[in-house]
Fold each of these.
Amino acid sequence: MAQNHVLIVGSRKTKKLTIVKDIFGVSDFSSFLDKNAKSHTGLIISNGKIVCKYYTADVNIFVDEVQPTLESYNEWLVEFQSSQMKELRDSIQGIILTLRVEILSRHSDQFTQSLQHISDLLDSEYIEDHTGDNEFQWNGFKVVVGIMSEDSSRVDDSWLEKLEEKIPETGFDFVIKKGDSPFACDSCTASGSGDELKAIVQSTQWPEMRLINNKRGKSFKVSETTDEFVANFDEVLSSLHNAKNSASHISNEDEKSVYVKAKVAELLDKLNI
């Protein structure tokens, strides 16, 4: 089993399995889904895969399900911070929370506070476990995916703009998804397409990945790469992290999407040694 693990948490009909399909390339769920199960709680999908121009990686996806209320999400976030969940926190390289954005239209302070606490906890535990490695923060990704539905029309635009400011301040990226277009739609640049999620996932440095040397036309594990390639890759990840911070301050979603796509293309080009 691959050592790359991602946790996806959300209520029903918040596109959890759509993300598994679009981002991690899983098209057949028959061997993972229990037809008699009433929820996706505890679902483990072991054949996820990330394939891009610069590397490939096998990924296991853990899926958990909560009730479609803000209270249920808050309870899960508190539980995730418990000592009993440390083994899970240590094993994952990414966490994706999916929710209908209208549940955040009121009383979201506890939710954002919990996100901040989780970011701080992941950082502190990672630094503690990597003493002497000059690591200053957790190197995985954290994303809140806000699903816009017909009910989302009740969400005031000004409040949505506040969420787009508040959530990134916690260390979590905030991706808004409207409509039924795929998350991995390369041609989608409009606000709400959700295509930013693909860039976030692909910019992650996975524990196990096969980097592709384009000039030589072959792939190899990270442990087998040259020092030059590893140095370039680390530089890209550091630069991309800075670019994400810059993008969080762009209020216009269309401009932010264009900026992210351009920056990702520019930085990944550095890997073509």
Amino acid sequence: MRERQPHVTVAMITYNHEKFVGDAVRSILAQTYADFELVIVDDGSTDATAEVIRGLRDERIVYLRQENQGPSEARNAALRVARGTLIAQMSGDDVAEPARLERQVACHRDRPNSVIFSHCTFIGDDSRAIDGARWEKLTNRPNWTGDATLRYLYLDGNCFLAPSALAARSAFEAVGPYNPVMLQLQDYDMWVRFLLKGYEPHIVEEPLMQHRIRAGGANLSSPSHGSNVRAHFERQRLLREFLTINRARRVVEIFPDAASLGYPLDDDLVPFLLVMIGLKAEPQRNVLQTFAADLLMELMENPATRKLLSEKAGFHLPDLFRILGQIDPFNAQRLRTRLGSTQKQLKELIESRTWRVARTLRSLTTGLIGRH
């Protein structure tokens, strides 16, 4: 029976983490900050994860098991039962440093309107340190302003380590639950909503987490055909969150280049300005271009909006047709250029003296072998 209300709820989600969840749980139970509960949601594991967790007896642990529904619904389940004033996210295959909660709670006390993240180190399946250069340029970066972060989230992608996040429960309630249809980018979507609501991101610039990079691409975020396709569609969905911006001045604060697009900074043109920012971004971003082109078609399909864009932005149907014919969301031109370069190199190789000599030697060798 849970009687005392803790200050922090650590919301850990886990799925088939039998080899790692014990270390993850013990790292939370060993925190130097003691005023917490640990809510663990098992998202339908088919291995021995449940047995490992049940073997770790501690009155601070609340264990829930659900049918497999994905990380969003697992996190939502944890939020529904959480009693803490603050929510610290955690994954069942990562490890928290002993001072993680102490440092983040203190940081949040000074910045109550913030979402707190941290730097991390990287470990492999054997819990030994590995080179994290591929990931740490984003996770272990200095702090950016909220607007600079929003700009990156729109133009480039995610830039936070989800299991290191800590925020007020009231903040999670204000932005709403994790989107259940998102498997790859549920955290990215949540950070966009946090920042658009006015919450500031802040990174504790010391490694408070050990993030596990598992062998064989076992991390949910590991690149694969399936994860790449899902991320493509999910990102197009979450970019629509930026349409909650309703002031042109706010657009310019986040995207200073909007002032030089050549269109009036009119509140009625906010969706159109976001489209043009996406289409004109350099270097070109495939998903962002597809999102922007689709939104532009949507705007121009509506007679009232089409009239508004004609009158206020001087934008007409021929402009739409021209733009759609110029963008290259599938990198076709880049692939053609690369193929042409490869064909040229192959031709030069075939016509080279070295190739001709080698071809003659191969013919002689084949002839000699054929005689024996």
